[in-house]
């Protein structure tokens, strides 16, 4: 018989697992890993609301994507265009970024799988006599290691030609040049830290769902058990 067991700690772990997976996925897909040096404004860069010149635009560069401003000559205006600069894996600008993409992709796939499974832990707490919480916590720890490797390797690619075109000639491995780090890189770091927090917190979720109070309510014949 299936017993639906909901506790504060198990629900918090489930929510954190889902948030971490989405945060890492969004960061990976974003082009805001590097913010390039400012492009000087031209006579065409006019703010339609104020009539004055717009602030200099700073293009952004991701692992496989980028955002830049394109000009529409017939309309005398400029739009921001975002999309992948690499049509396939081999066209990613640096071998280091290719390795980063692999490590991050593996880590994110594991996190997404755990996030999917975590939704069902309310009904199924063990499989083959193994706690699902403990197995998921172990997988989250492994995913965190892949994410760390990807984030450590990523700055080594700052010396590639693509990064130099955005960051200036002084950009090199682990040196930003005229660029600054974008929100996606910080989000990936924050998500990695939360991944390890989730891995540790999974043990607390397992303890909460197998406590004596839960067992007492199961023995009383309750199928829906909600505990604070």
UniProtKB/TrEMBL annotation:
Task: Quote the InterPro entries the UniProt record gives.
Answer: LHFPL
Question: Which residues are listed as membrane-spanning?
Answer: 12-35, 96-120, 132-154, 183-203
| Topology within the bilayer | Multi-pass membrane protein
GO cellular component terms given for this protein: membrane
Q: Which UniProt keywords apply?
A: Fertilization, Membrane, Transmembrane, Transmembrane helix
Q: Name one GO biological process term.
A: single fertilization
Q: In which broad location class does this protein mainly occur, judging by the first location in its UniProt entry?
A: membrane
Q: Secretion signal: which residues?
A: none
- Does Transmembrane helix appear among the keywords? yes
Per UniProt, subcellular location reads as:
Membrane
One Pfam family named in its UniProt record: L_HMGIC_fpl
Name the family.
Belongs to the LHFP family.
Record protein name field: LHPL2 protein
Record lineage: Eukaryota, Metazoa, Chordata, Craniata, Vertebrata
């Amino acid at each position: 018989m299936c017993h639906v067991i909901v506790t504060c700690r198990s629900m918090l772990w489930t929510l954190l697992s889902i948030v971490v997976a989405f945060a890492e996925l969004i960061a990976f897909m974003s082009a805001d890993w590097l913010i390039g040096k400012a492009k000087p404004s031209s006579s065409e860069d006019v703010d339609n609301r104020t009539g004055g010149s717009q602030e200099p635009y700073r293009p952004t560069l991701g692992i496989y994507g980028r955002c830049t401003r394109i000009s529409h000559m017939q309309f005398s205006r400029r739009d921001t265009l975002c999309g992948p600069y690499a049509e396939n894996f081999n066209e990613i600008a640096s071998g280091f970024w290719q390795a980063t993409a692999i490590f991050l992709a593996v880590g994110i796939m594991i996190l997404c799988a755990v996030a999917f499974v975590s939704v069902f832990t309310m009904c199924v707490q063990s499989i083959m006599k193994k706690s699902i919480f403990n197995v998921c916590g172990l997988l989250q720890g492994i995913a965190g290691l892949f994410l760390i490797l990807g984030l450590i390797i990523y700055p080594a690619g700052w010396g590639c030609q693509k990064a130099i075109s955005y960051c200036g000639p002084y950009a090199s491995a682990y040196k930003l040049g005229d660029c600054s780090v974008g929100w996606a890189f910080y989000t990936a770091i924050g998500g990695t830290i939360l991944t390890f927090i989730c891995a540790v917190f999974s043990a607390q979720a397992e303890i909460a769902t197998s406590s004596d109070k839960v067992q007492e309510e199961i023995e009383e014949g309750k199928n829906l058990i909600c505990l604070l």
